Amino acid sequence: MSFSRVNTSSATLTKNRTEESITSTSGMCVTCIDGCIGMCEIGKSSYRGHEVIYPQPFGVITVAAEKKYPVDYSHFNIMGTVTGAYGIEADSDKAIFPAVNLEVAIGHDKGIKFKLPWLISGIGSTNIAKNNWEGLAIGSALAGTGLTIGENVVGMDPETVFKNGKIVDTADLKRRVKLYKDYQRDGYGAIIVQANVEDSRLKVHEYAIEKLGIECVELKWGQGAKDIGGEVKIKELKKAQMLHERGYIVLPDPTNPDVIKAFERGAFKEFERHSRVGMVNEESFAETIAGLRKAGAKYIFLKTGAYRPADLARAISFSSKYRLDLLTVDSAGGGTGMSPWRMMNEWGVPPVELHSLVYQYAKRLADDKKYLPAIAVNGGFSFEDQIFKALAMGAPFVKMVGMARAPIAAAMVGKTIGLAIEAQQVPVYIERFGTSKEEIFVTASSLRKELGDKAFEKLPTGAIGLYTYYERLAQGLRQLMAGSRKFSLEYISRNDLAALTREAADISDIPYIMDMDKAEVDRILS
To answer: What stretch of H or E contains 454?
Structure first.
């Protein structure tokens, strides 16, 4: 049984010459023929080399791994019941799904309030993030959820102003923060600024706290898509040289005269900008946390990736010891930018396994009466059933899930529909609902009523698209919770899940479905 596809993928714009006769181990055509122009990944690598490591086309895509893991969240089912109700009176006229409360409060003082139990965890300097930020920021703020400004935004911004090595002004970061804050309502949600190695050297957090009024900052150890620093492609020589001057790893060296000549004559068309890998140790971690608190950070988060179990234990232990407010654990899988394609597929601990370890390690600290921050988990989540399962798998420690690709998709579609409306070229598939914003977007009328005509007309359709997608997730999650008779998030438990295979049960310690409720069944039948 094969879990991975090798040698061809739409992500790398490659394919086999033959459609059926393919060797499963190498992914090569069984008959590799002399004279083929090289459509597969091996062939394309023979003339484009390292460029084929990354998904393409850069800047207009988000990417997810194709690997099929032996166990995933589809190997669990949600358990419903016909008796009782938690969080509401057990009365059929009161225990209705619209009454389910999806609000969650996190932080050392429970001062961060979200209307919905998810956040976008880390949208950084990639074009796909920058080009859709209006929709992501405004939609998240209107929905009362969290949004994280990811790594390298300040360093990548040509308009960032430095004086004596210190940031004195930015354009992109300031814009991103303002778009969110301008639409934040009733104190719900949070805009979070993340920092990797380069950001920390540039003192991005200190600038964001002092100049932009940021309360929530996040340290980044990594993400599920890759185990190295972030990378993007640069098409302009001057920008590549600027990033080199700011201390980034830029390949090839944009200051080398031979490289400059090769670029100018078209020998290659893109530079690669890479971030460095972090070197975590407890002493420097403690110093960083103390420095951020001294700088005025009200809430401090940590995001870690799909690293080995010892690193997860380290993340949970440090978050406990230094009393952080949120720990986000990202599992192996997709990405929002330009993570190396084979790394996305073949690196890291998969979601079910990693989230099971999160529960085990958190429980161990909780049993020892130690402080635990709120925990969020990431894993390619896109719909309400997956959100429910992740919350149940990690209950009572996991309070939220993190998402990225799905919200970006919703914002992109909303933006595209808006452009079609403006051009009076609404596709037939969409036109069956209408040709205006209020006819097409099902939440438009309620948003107009709530915001007023003037404010509604200013809303970008990308924001309406994200808001409407979130509305669907919220209603779907309320229905699932009502079916399990859990009318508030704190009542979701691991008992709300059943494993469909013995392997899934062994990994997660969630009971196999045929073993569920045995004691209660014996009592009922006796």
So the answer is: helix 453-458
